[in-house]
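Section 3.1: Structural characterization of target chains.
Under the original work plan, the team committed to producing a structural model for every single-chain target entering the pipeline before any wet-lab resources were allocated. The record below documents one such target. The sequence was received from the expression subgroup and is listed exactly as submitted; it comprises 893 residues.
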Amino acid sequence: MKIHHFTTDQALASLRSSAQGLDDAEARRRLAEYGPNRVEGLRKTPAIVRLLREFTHFFALVLWLAAALALVAEANDPGKSMATLAGAIVGVIIVNGVFSYWQQFRAERVLAALARLLPHQARAVRAGEAVLLPVAELVPGDVILVEGGDDVPADCRVIEAFGLRVNTATLTGESLARARHAGPSPEEDDPVHARNLLLAGTSVIAGDARALVFATGMDTQFGRIAQLTQATGDEPSPLQLEIVRLSRVIAVLATALGVAFFLVGHALGLSFWENFVFAIGIIVAMVPEGLLPTLTLSLAFAAQRMARRNALVRHLPAVETLGAASIICADKTGTLTENRMSVERVFADGAYVDHRARAARGSATACLLETARHCHTLKFLTVNGAVEPAGDPMEIALVQAAQALGLEDCLPQIDEIPFDADRRRMSTLHQGPQGRVLHCKGALEAVLPLCTTIITAGGEAPLDDARRAALFEAQQRMAADGLRVLAFAHRPVAADTPRERWESALAVSGLVGLKDPPRAEVPDAIRRCHAAGIRVVMITGDHPATALAIAREIGIAGAEPRVVTGDELRHLSDTQLQLVLDAPDLLFARVGPEQKLRVVNAFRRKGHVVAVTEDGVNDAPALKAADIGIAMGMRGTDVAREAADVVLLDDNFASIVSAIEEGRTVFDNVRKFMTYILTSNVPEIVPYLAFVLFRIPLPLTVIQILAVDLGTDMLPALALGAEKPDPVVMLQPPRRPNERLLDWGLVVRAFLFLGPIQAAAALGAFFLVLYGEGWSYGTALAASDPLYLRATTACLAAIVVMQIANVLECRHPLKPAWSGNSGTNRLIAWGIAFEIALILAIVYTPWGQLAFGTAALPAEIWLALLPCALVLIGLEELRKAAVYRRRARRPPA
């Protein structure tokens, strides 16, 4: 048996304690045995090891190898700028490694947020005396005292309670306050829902209690969530996995080509060091050193745009992941709803009435609202000069509904019969000018048997069977719509009436249906998700009827949805669960933290990219396990925000749709700048192949390759990464999870079409200078020869000019370069201006000529390059038109 199944005496005996608590000696012994009552962290990999991993992954190792080879070449054959090359490559490795390491700190902040939710001190009973103790010193067997407004410091079994109600939303997701009592609770197997337990991380709304601590620290339900959150590792995003795959493919290909052409050069009779420099050049030309920095900056720009749309990105790769989401698992309370109770319907005098309209004095509605105004346990606090109610959200809603109709004055309360789970009602006694009045509210089944009359338009009338049936029918209708239904009654009480007779001969005034209303903007956001091919599934700890009513109201569920409860989920195997997930209309209710995590993982196993929107402590494991976790910024807990990848600053579910639009754009933009960057690899590699195969002077030096990859290409590539969303991006389904960044279409376009055009222009410029100044084939040129410097400079300039034309063509894979509004992305213009300014500085300034081995070019060389750029634009526009026509003729799928 579990402790909540025991009687009070059995619970105390099971922990060898008593109502007088433990003595100090026994408490110290148990503290040494069980440890302090706090959330502990799991053992983590040392920081230095995690840092070193960022500099030793496969892509980094290839760059380290290239830098080392450059230093060896500099030592044996100085004067070739190999040391500068090595320094530039090491700089790229360090920047990327430090940034990646920084991202890991977010996981460590989750633990601190969990710890902040627990109170710092608790009132405990030690040897029969109440003492104030640090929470960390509580041990199993301690007896503590709690009252309204307290946070629960450990898992406790209630042994005495007076009007006790708790808010368990942080653990269960339920928005309603729950009563707690001291009796056994054998009907509940799950301790989270046991009616005699107080769990760490929850809060007491009303009443007071004496409770027995039975679990502390990581043994509490709260601690289990903390452990589950920490144990759920940060999975790499789809974009990160794709970049890793792409990096390995390129790195392996670059290394293989370098080695292969080293052997080819050796076979053709080149010297060892010529071959060595050549192999390094092939590796450097093939590896897109600017890819990772450009990707990082592109994601940062997208994150800034998302922040302007109230979605704060805490983990940059999440920007693109959100765009790939095919499933959104959304919590109900505080995410789809407003996380507050409101009066939705009033049934009085045999009909539904408008509770917002002022009721006639003495009418059933007026009597009902009078009871709502008086019968509560709220405290009224002054906040910023205004008096505001604090306590049970349901009671706050009732009082505010009464106050809205002018019922501000409240008769003084002189006594109370508190609510408990067995009575299912509460009553308060007030002193009025005409005498004492009792107001009662509770479940209809608990209140109606105490009533003999009903308030009607003509005054009190006998409560006959027809009127009773009408009340029960109204209750059933409101409950079917997901409303929490309360009955209200009152009676005058003579001063000499015994207390046990107060709740008798009551006059029922009517029923009130309350609900946590959905956010106004959510239905439209759900429709936009459906139009974008994204499925929204509600996962909540709330009651199935409430969840279903909200789901239907916002458009998640249809006429016959599949509702899976936590109890049912507990008995489903993983295979059965994955079959259940195929249901077109699906929602989960009464589920716990581990079950939310299980559902998320099941969706992922089915190949979905899963986004989870949550706001409670119980949601942190699911937030971390999802491909992307989205927390509420205003109402969400610190734990949820720290575990999430994205935080909605306005708690607006509709902001997710805007964020998805930005995320989808990121993937398209990454492809744009990848096409742009990879295209320039071809004119960087071809000169080396020509150098080996045709025994010509090397048309492009390694340091000049870096001038393109880490210089002139960077800002234009970043500008492509900052392109705004295409208007049709949210009318398309999510991209396939297995869709590659580097697919065959991109490879053919970059390497087999645009790249060769650029390579032809680059070699043409190189030979134009050589032959124009009298060079003849077979004549060797020294590295410092002015003619050689001008020829390599012309090759470099040709690549840059062609890339200027290429950046315009890469803005869209199918639309003409002139179809877009040039003013929509000013970074393109700035990128081209930067590209021009940098190449002019490299060619015409002394420091540029010294650093990159260049020489000034005459104007006619630049003029000769312009037609080449126009040829690239013309051929690419013809390709786009041909592909567009072919797709237009393709029959729809």
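The two ends are 59 Å apart (CA to CA).
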